[in-house]
Write a structure and sequence with these properties.
By secondary structure, the chain is an all-alpha fold. Helices cover 49% and strands 0% of the residues.
């Protein structure tokens, strides 16, 4: 079972790769930014109290809902 911390790390990695592609290859920038926008609409699965799926390193991440790279307020993507 994937924890929301693992889910968040995966989404963060995809975001980072898409942003790198947009910077490195201007021809692909529009498509890469589409990926970024799609990923930002994804949220990790909601955490249910007492579900027992905490990793030792993600306990605080579970509590601080809405905080993190996918939830930050950013200016619209401009390429």
């Amino acid at each position: 079972m994937t924890t929301s911390a693992q889910w968040q790390r995966t989404l963060d990695a995809v975001l980072e790769l898409a942003e790198d592609i947009a910077r490195i290859s201007p021809d692909c920038a529009d498509r890469a930014m589409q990926i970024v926008r799609l990923i930002r609409t994804c949220d990790p699965p909601p955490h249910r109290s007492g579900a027992g799926d905490f990793d030792t390193d993600d306990e605080l991440e579970e509590i601080e809902v809405g905080i993190g790279p996918l939830h930050r307020n950013k200016a619209p993507d401009a390429v």
